[in-house]
Structures are given as structure tokens and as C-alpha cells.
Write a structure and sequence with these properties.
By secondary structure, the protein is an alpha+beta fold. The protein contains 4 helices and 6 strands.
Length: 124
């Protein structure tokens, strides 16, 4: 399980990196064709909306993420849970969020099928 945790965690963290976030090609590789997200705002997004938005964004504040836990839900299906925040100059960590991602193994490799971000009740 440890090896799978490191693999899925690395893919998830790759989505936090500004260089990757701006690459439509890489986003399309990482996000499953039926990708769906419920953001910390409570709004729902589909794959094309997320890809179009992230591909046009300028550099984002650094994301700090930790407390990763992986649960295998079945063959080729994994749930990754963690917490994250954005690091802003002069303000420290903001936007504390609890996150869950469902990753599925496809012919294209591991792809993110669903993501949920929930505003954290407490900061860390």
C-alpha cells in the first residue's frame, strides 16, 4: 500500500504545481474523461470546465498539502484524503481545505475520477 500511496500522492501533488496546472495536455492525461469535482465553494465542475479554467490561469500561490491517507476501494480504485492550504506572501497559509480524491487505474494509467474540497472548520 505504501508504494501506491506514494504514486497517487505524487500525481495529486502534480496537480498543485503551477507549471502542470497550466498545461492542458497534462491535465487531460491526469483527469479521467468523466472527471467531476465539487469545490470548496460548493460548486460542481466537469472536466472540460476545470481543464479550460486551469489551462488559462497565471501562476498560482504555492499549495501546501499533507496528512495523506490512501484507501483502496477495490481493484484499480483508490481514495486519497488529505488537507491543503495556499501559501500567500505576508499572510501565511490561507484557504485551509479538507480534500478527497478518487483515482482509477485505466489503460492510460492512474486518472483522477472525482475530487471534493471542503472548507476546513479549523486551520493548522
Amino acid at each position: 500500500m505504501s508504494n501506491l500511496l506514494h504514486r497517487i500522492q505524487a500525481l495529486e501533488v502534480e496537480l498543485h504545481h503551477p507549471g502542470v496546472r497550466c498545461s492542458r495536455e497534462r491535465l487531460e492525461q491526469l483527469l479521467h474523461p468523466q472527471f467531476h469535482e465539487v469545490g470548496r465553494s460548493g460548486r460542481a465542475y466537469d472536466r472540460e470546465t476545470i481543464v479550460a479554467y486551469l489551462a488559462t490561469q497565471p501562476s498560482q500561490p504555492p499549495v501546501v498539502s499533507d496528512a495523506f491517507v490512501l484507501s483502496e476501494l477495490g481493484p484499480g480504485v483508490a481514495l486519497l484524503s488529505y488537507r491543503s492550504a495556499q501559501e500567500e506572501a505576508g499572510r501565511g497559509l490561507v484557504g485551509h481545505t479538507l480534500r478527497s480524491s478518487v483515482w482509477v487505474k485505466t489503460d492510460a494509467g492512474w486518472q483522477l475520477r472525482h475530487h471534493q474540497g471542503t472548507a476546513a472548520a479549523q486551520v493548522w
